[in-house]
Each structure stands twice: as structure tokens, then as C-alpha cells.
């Protein structure tokens, strides 16, 4: 959807709020609306075509098969599909995504899944072992983060629950603070104050829960600015947030200063350690300095931390922790008068996959502290090699001083074209905006022999390939260019939604 350059220059100066009102108004004018809809249809069709081109086609049908497919032949097909997809993650070609992926670990998790595939902690009477796994994982994690689950004062005891992932842990924490704010702090509407680099899960949570999200610009070092964050607090603030680290540039916000500031103002403070908690907790033992971010700091009242990232469990679990059992109570949902009986759940879900909880427990039990320290060392050492290697490539600059999520940018080449060139060489990295940059979240997959060297060689080649090449068609470069230049973010949102449509409708 192209908007002429001259119009863009004018529109770029229009304040954001006014821009989105204008956009809504424009789309209501019949002719503009028709043009927009026609363009959206075209974009939707082209996205569907792209999605279709990458889909496996065997066994395709719109309907449930009349007679079931013979399991042996189905498994044969699944093996083929999975092994075609495996090299991308197994050979360390992606940023983040797969955090362990070691052969023996995966075989172990498979066996655990087999034992617990039917288990559901909603029926704790039938699967008491699963209920124990969950409480163990929560307590192990609380202790790792300097919390004391057995504190004699319930208001200081660190407790929590498991969720399905980082986004759900964050949404649960926001629900807890919304209900705590209403019940105990006299807050009617409620605001959540986050640095601009905080994960979109906070937008999603605030939107879903009907509270306002206040995004505060980060400082010139890419980290939360304590003074600006403080200025954004109000009597309506439900919780103040910092990331350890943030997803985009892998930078740890000044959690110590932020949480002390929030504490002094009587505001709860949440550390989003979804990405970093299981690295930062072991970094010192692995020989690397690590900032303080957890319950060691008196102002930190909750933490989200993902077992399914550097906790090395299978996808589908995360931990949300609170300082004080009174807080966790606000996360629960209870229904005493339903015709279906008495009903209580700790979080948003009803039934939950017991097998994933069993896998998370197995992972922690088999790795032990030593295993996590060993893995953290491997990740941080590999990241140091990559950071130094990237800084040596002419034209590239590492953003800030990250630990293991290494973002790079450039004043000389279009980094989104570098991203496209890397994609041609099989690498799946993340594009970042404001300013344009690319990041690689280093995992154990990159610590395998030869991976870091291969990445640096491909990156140097990608930079050489895009030097002096004008921006062309296709790939991510024009899409990010468009997103950055449009004041009408609704247009970009429509394209993103059309992509999600395509995943279902292709
Ligand atoms: C800092 C941070 N918070 C939250 C999340 C959300 O986690 P999930 O994708 O498991 O929902 C992520 C994901 O990368 C993250 O990096």
C-alpha cells in the first residue's frame, strides 16, 4: 500500500493521535474506503500466496478424513515434514526460538510426554504428581531468584504459579495488580507504566484487561529512564515495570534504581525476566557480572521468568512469582455457585497440559544448578565471540553493551537488507525498529562447534552484498521501510492482521 513521498513528509509531522483519527475518517469516505479495501484484498491475496508456497501439501483436505489415516503412514509423513524443518533450528540458524535442542535432552522430554500426555492439573486428585511438579518448579524458581517461599510472614513469602508462556505470565501479573489495585489501593481504572522497550505482552494484557498502558521513552543508552518513569507514575498506577533484559536490544533496565523508586512511591514493581531470568540467575557462577533484578531487591514485588526459554523446558510453560501470598490470591478465579460444581483455577486457563509441567520439572531436576551454570557459560561465551565478531565487520555497530541478545545497526548499509541477505543464507533473525536494527538471541544452538564462525562469515558476506545496492522489491526491507514511514499505524496493523489471516486461510 504506497503513499506518495510528498504526502508522507506532510503526514509524518501530524501528531500520532490526530493521524489515527484522520485515518479512521479517511477510511469512512466511500472512495478512500474502497481504495483501502481493494489494496487490503490484494495484500491479503499476496500474503496467502506466500504462506501457501511454504506449506507442505500432502494429506491436504478441508474436511476431517472419513476414515482415519493409518497411523504408520501418517507418522512417516510427519517424520518427513519435521526433518525438513529441523535444520533451521537444530543447526543454530535462528535467533532465540529453540534454547536447548540437544539430542539427549529431547529424547528424555519425549519419554516424559509419553508418561503424562493425558495429565491435567485441573484434576489434582487424579494427578497429584503433576500438582507436585508445578509447586516444585515454582519453589525452585523462587529460591533461584532470592525469594523465600517459606518466609514466616505470608506478605514476604515468594510464591507463584505456572502459566503457558511469557505473555500469559505478564497478563496474569497485570490482572493481579488490577484486582489488587481495585480491592486494596482504591484504584478504579488503573495504569501500567512500562519502558518503551517492554514486550508487547504488556500492550496485550492492558488491552485485554481494560487498563491503560503508559509507554515511557527509554534513555539514550536504550534502557529505562528512571526519572522519566517516575514522572509517569500517578495515583492510578497499578504497577511499574522493567525488563531483565528487554527483547529488542537485550539490555537490562536499571532494575535496582527503578524498583527502589517505585517502592518509595508505594507502587508495586514487576521485573519481566521472561527472556533473561534463567541466564542472569547463573551468570555470576558462570564467571560473568550480572546486574541485580530479582527479589533480592526489596522493591521487586513480582517477576515473570520463562521455563520454556533459558529454563530449557519444552514450549508451553513459564513462571509468575509474587512477593506475598495476598498478591497471588488476586490472580486466582473462583466460582462458588456454578451448576457444574465448585470451580477454582490459578490463572486464565481451565485445563492445562500436565505433560508440559512434568517436562519442566524433569528439565530442572536433571540439569540441576551445575547444568544451568554450564549452559549459561556456553551461551555467554558464544555471545562474547559473536559480539566482538560483529563489531569487527566494517559498517556494523553493536547496540549498547548486551550480554547475549546481540543487536546491531548500521549508518552505512540498510540493515533490513542485511536481514534479507542472511535469510537467503538460511538465517532467521529478528528485525527491530526505532532505530532500524537486527538482533540475534544467542542460545545453546549457537554454542555448537562452528556455528558462530559460520554466522560471522555469512554476516560479513551479507553486508558486502548489500553495499551500494539500491532498495529493491520483496523481503522485509520494504515492509520495515513502510512501517517506519507511515504515521497511520492502523494501515500497518491491517497488514499484520492480514498475515495472521493468511496463516489460517491459505
Ligand atoms: C522480555 C520478554 N518478555 C516477554 C516475552 C513473551 O514471551 P512468550 O513469547 O513466551 O509469550 C518475551 C519473548 O520473547 C520476551 O523476550
Textual characterization of the structure:
This protein is of the alpha/beta class. It has a domain at 115-363: Type I PLP-dependent aspartate aminotransferase-like (Major domain) (Aspartate Aminotransferase, domain 2, 3-Layer(aba) Sandwich), CATH 3.40.640.10. The protein is 48% helix and 12% strand. The strands form three sheets. It has a seven-stranded mixed sheet with strand order 1-7-6-5-4-2-3, sandwiched between helices. Helix 3 (30-53) crosses helix 17, helix 11 crosses helix 13 (354-392) and helix 14 packs across helix 15. The protein is globular and about 65 Å long. The site of pyridoxal-5'-phosphate has 13 residues, from helix 7.
List the defining traits of the structure above.
single chain, about 500 residues, alpha/beta, Aspartate Aminotransferase, domain 2, 4-stranded antiparallel sheet, 17 helices, about 50% helix, globular, disordered N terminus, binds pyridoxal-5'-phosphate
What would you say about this model in short?
This protein is α/β, with parallel strands linked by helices. The protein is 48% helix and 12% strand.
Derived from helix and strand composition plus strand pairing, the structural class reads alpha/beta
Report the β-strand fraction as a percent range.
5-15%
What order do the helices and strands follow?
A: HHHHHHEHEHEHEHEHEEHEEHEEHEEHHH
The DSSP helix count reads 17
Give start-end ranges of low-pLDDT stretches: 1-14
Shape: globular
- Major beta sheet, strand line-up: 1-7-6-5-4-2-3
Bound molecules: pyridoxal-5'-phosphate
CATH architecture assignment name of the domain at 115-363:
3-Layer(aba) Sandwich
Largest pleated sheet: 7 strands, mixed
Rg from Cα: 24 Å
Helix share of residues? 40-55%
- Report mean pLDDT, rounded to a whole number: 92
Distance between the termini: 21 Å
What is the CATH topology assignment of the domain at 115-363?
A: Aspartate Aminotransferase, domain 2
Number of strands: 13
Give the class-level CATH name of the domain at 115-363.
Alpha Beta
CATH homologous superfamily identity of the domain at 115-363: Type I PLP-dependent aspartate aminotransferase-like (Major domain)
Amino acid at each position: 500500500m504506497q503513499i506518495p513521498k510528498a504526502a508522507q513528509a506532510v503526514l509524518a509531522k501530524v501528531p500520532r493521535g490526530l493521524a489515527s483519527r484522520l485515518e479512521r475518517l479517511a477510511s469512512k469516505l466511500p472512495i478512500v474506503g474502497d481504495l483501502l479495501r481493494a489494496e487490503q484484498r490484494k495484500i491479503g491475496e499476496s500474503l496467502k500466496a506466500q504462506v501457501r508456497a511454504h506449506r507442505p501439501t500432502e494429506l491436504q483436505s478441508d474436511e476431517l478424513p472419513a476414515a482415519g489415516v493409518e497411523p504408520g503412514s501418517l507418522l512417516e509423513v510427519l517424520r518427513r515434514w519435521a526433518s525438513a524443518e529441523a535444520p533451521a533450528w537444530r543447526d543454530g540458524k535462528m535467533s532465540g526460538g529453540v534454547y536447548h535442542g540437544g539430542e539427549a535432552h529431547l529424547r528424555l522430554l519425549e519419554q516424559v510426554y509419553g508418561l503424562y500426555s493425558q495429565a491435567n492439573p485441573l484434576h489434582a486428585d487424579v494427578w497429584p504428581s503433576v500438582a507436585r511438579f508445578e509447586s516444585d518448579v515454582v519453589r525452585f524458581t523462587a529460591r533461584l531468584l532470592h525469594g523465600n517461599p517459606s518466609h514466616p510472614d505470608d506478605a514476604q513469602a515468594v510464591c507463584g504459579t505456572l502459566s503457558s508462556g511469557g505473555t500469559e505470565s505478564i497478563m496474569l501479573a497485570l490482572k493481579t495488580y488490577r484486582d489488587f489495585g481495585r480491592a486494596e489501593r482504591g484504584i478504579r481504572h488503573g495504569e501500567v507504566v512500562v519502558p518503551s522497550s517492554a514486550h508487547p505482552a504488556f500492550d496485550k494484557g492492558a488491552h485485554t484487561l481494560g487498563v491503560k498502558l503508559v509507554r515511557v521513552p527509554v534513555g539514550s543508552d536504550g534502557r529505562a529512564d528512571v526519572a522519566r518513569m517516575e514522572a509517569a507514575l500517578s495515583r492510578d498506577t497499578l504497577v511499574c515495570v522493567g525488563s531483565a533484559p528487554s527483547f529488542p536490544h537485550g539490555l537490562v533496565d536499571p532494575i535496582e534504581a527503578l524498583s527502589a523508586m517505585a517502592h518509595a512511591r508505594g507502587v508495586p514493581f514487576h521485573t519481566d525476566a521472561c527472556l533473561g531470568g534463567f541466564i542472569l540467575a547463573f551468570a555470576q557462577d558462570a564467571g560473568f557480572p550480572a546486574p541485580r533484578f530479582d527479589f533480592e531487591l526489596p522493591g521487586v514485588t513480582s517477576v515473570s521468568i520463562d521455563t520454556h526459554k533459558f529454563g530449557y523446558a519444552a514450549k508451553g510453560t513459564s513462571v509468575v512469582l509474587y512477593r506475598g501470598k495476598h498478591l497471588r490470591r488476586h490472580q486466582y478465579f473462583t466460582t462458588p455457585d456454578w451448576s457444574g460444581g465448585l470451580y477454582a483455577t490459578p490463572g486464565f486457563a481451565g485445563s492445562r497440559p500436565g505433560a508440559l509441567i512434568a517436562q519442566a520439572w524433569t528439565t530442572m531436576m536433571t540439569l540441576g544448578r551445575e547444568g544451568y551454570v554450564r549452559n549459561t557459560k556456553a551461551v555467554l561465551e558464544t555471545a562474547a565471540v559473536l559480539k566482538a565478531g560483529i563489531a569487527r565487520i566494517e559498517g556494523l555497530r553493536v547496540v549498547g553493551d548486551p550480554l547475549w541478545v546481540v543487536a546491531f545497526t548500521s549508518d552505512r548499509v540498510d540493515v533490513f537488507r542485511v536481514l534479507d541477505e542472511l535469510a537467503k543464507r538460511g538465517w532467521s533473525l529478528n528485525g527491530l525498529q526505532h532505530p532500524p536494527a537486527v538482533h540475534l538471541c544467542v542460545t545453546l544452538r549457537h554454542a555448537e562447534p562452528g556455528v558462530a564462525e559460520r554466522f560471522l562469515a555469512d554476516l560479513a558476506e551479507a553486508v558486502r552484498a548489500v553495499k551500494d545496492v539500491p532498495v529493491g522489491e520483496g523481503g522485509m526491507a520494504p515492509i520495515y521501510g513502510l512501517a517506519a514511514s507511515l504515521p497511520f499505524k492502523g494501515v500497518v496493523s491491517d497488514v499484520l492482521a492480514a498475515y495472521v489471516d493468511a496463516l489460517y486461510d491459505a
